[in-house]
Specification:
six-stranded antiparallel β-sheet; 6 strands; 20% helix; alpha+beta
């Protein structure tokens, strides 16, 4: 995982709503690029409330999954909600993924909650559909 950006900044309104926080609240903001066999696989943008994000540094994100770092910092992960849709590659992401602007991408948005129901992470991941797929097993409830 390559860390492209790591800083603490004010939450934009749309992300603040996802984290159940006020716009402008300070949060950790990171952008990363995951590669598979040297090829860019997906671009990941994440936001974590500042009080939780200060438990680890940017260098740790390059070698350890963020949820594991959060757990090591004392966050008890409870659940997540995820939406998968399609989108066109924005110019600021397409170059990092080796695609032309407007190329189709899988758009994954995830909210992660701790065991008390607090939103502790918001992620938007843009995946190359030629290198990535989702598989789910569905079972009926009785």
């Amino acid at each position: 995982m390559e860390v492209l950006h790591f800083a603490y900044s004010a939450l934009p309104a749309h992300v603040a709503a996802e984290l159940d926080l006020e716009p402008g609240t300070e949060a950790q903001h990171a952008r990363r690029l995951r590669r598979l066999d040297g090829l860019p696989l997906f671009h990941l943008e994440s936001w974590v409330p500042a009080d939780l994000g200060r438990g680890y540094a940017a260098a740790a994100l390059a070698r350890t999954p963020m949820l594991r770092l959060m757990q090591e910092a004392g966050v008890r992960i409870g659940s997540a909600r995820q939406i998968v849709t399609a989108t066109a590659a924005p110019p600021e992401v397409s170059g990092a993924l080796g695609l032309t602007p407007g190329a189709p991408l899988l758009d994954v948005r995830r909210r992660v909650f701790d065991e008390d129901g607090r939103a502790v992470q918001y992620i938007r991941a843009l995946h190359r559909p030629d290198l990535y797929s989702y598989e789910m097993e569905l079972t009926p409830r009785a």
